[in-house]
Specification:
Strand order of the largest sheet: 5-2-1-9-6-7-8
Helix content: 25-40%
Radius of gyration: 24 Å
Strand content: 5-15%
Number of helices: 8
Shape: elongated
Order of helices and strands: HEEEEEHEHEHEHEHHH
Number of strands: 9
Distance between the termini: 79 Å
């Protein structure tokens, strides 16, 4: 009986290893990244600081070359709950990278265990808390990079939020592009026990040291550095998100299944809703009478604004 228990235990162990291996990203397949992304090797993250262990980054080692930088270009940071408030945006400061030293404060940094399976994708997103900017510049760019074969779908998505929590829409929009939960750089780099269970990586633990780490910045100029593999990247991104959640959606009302009717969804900001409603009513009225003229009139108004 004991012999069979050992056999079953070994068999289950190998199954777990195979399942784990299937969730490990392939770093070698991500060699054609745009200039907005940067690889770091043998790195730990500690309270939003990158600690480097590669000898070429160690000033005391004979192989030392230089200490790299993560230079952010035109990344406008905003605050949770103040995404569109005028005057609250600021330029994202350059992240701190430093070589490891003999005076590391924690056991994890003094004796690092680098994960070869988990590869974090650290995201620096311009106007992170504005839905439209986040979808257009960050989510759509990740979708295009995955469709072009630039990004592995098994990366652990990590967002720099300056210690603020994520909005629900950010997790919602990014869920279709990773098998793991989305987390923040503040949480990933926090000094929690290594044994703490986590759902944002294939290791299932709170590891802070990685053999490979990828940092990417996303702003309004990112799409210009990406392959033109999709004719309509925003539409394609939306369809991917829709397919991911389709099984959770209620049946389509027969009234809305009629493709002969044009339906317009208008989203407004609560604090501007009264003023916006008057303009929207005018657009809907024109659309009911002459759709072609309504589109021309709407385009003219947008140019004036």
């Amino acid at each position: 009986m004991y012999r069979w228990q050992v056999v079953v235990s070994v068999w289950l162990h190998w199954l777990l290893l195979l399942a784990h291996a299937g969730l490990c990203p392939d770093a070698a397949s991500m060699s054609r990244l745009p200039p907005t992304c940067q690889w770091l090797a043998k790195v730990c993250v500690d309270q939003n600081v990158y600690v480097l262990y590669d000898n070429k980054y160690n000033p005391r080692h004979e192989l030392f070359q230089h200490v790299p930088r993560l230079k952010l270009d035109n990344i406008s940071a905003d605050y949770y709950g103040y995404g569109d408030v005028w005057g609250t945006h600021f330029s994202h400061p350059e992240p701190l990278l430093r070589p490891a030293t003999g005076g590391e404060e924690t056991r994890e940094l003094a004796h690092p265990q680098f994960s070869r399976c988990t590869i974090p994708l650290i995201i620096y997103a311009s106007r992170l808390y504005m839905y439209g900017h986040f979808f257009t510049n960050t989510v759509a760019s990740i979708h295009v990079m995955q469709q072009s074969g630039l990004l592995d779908r098994r990366l652990s998505i990590v967002i720099d939020t300056f210690g603020m929590q994520l909005e629900r829409f950010q997790r919602f929009l990014l869920a279709p592009f990773t098998p793991f939960d989305v987390t923040t750089l503040s949480h990933l780099s926090s000094r929690q026990p290594y044994e703490r269970p986590e759902s944002y990586n294939p290791d299932g633990q709170h590891g802070r040291c990685f053999w490979n780490l990828l940092a990417c910045q996303f702003n309004a100029n990112t799409s210009g550095h990406l392959p033109k593999t999709l004719d309509s990247p925003l539409w394609s991104t939306g369809q991917t998100i829709l397919q991911h959640y389709r099984h959770k959606l209620p049946p389509i009302d027969p009234e809305f299944a009629n493709n002969s009717k044009l339906r317009v969804l208008i989203a407004v900001l609560p604090r501007r809703s009264k003023l916006r409603a008057l303009v929207n009513q005018d657009q809907v009225r024109q659309c009911m009478t002459d759709p072609g003229d309504a589109l021309t009139h709407s385009s003219s108004q947008l140019q004036q604004q």
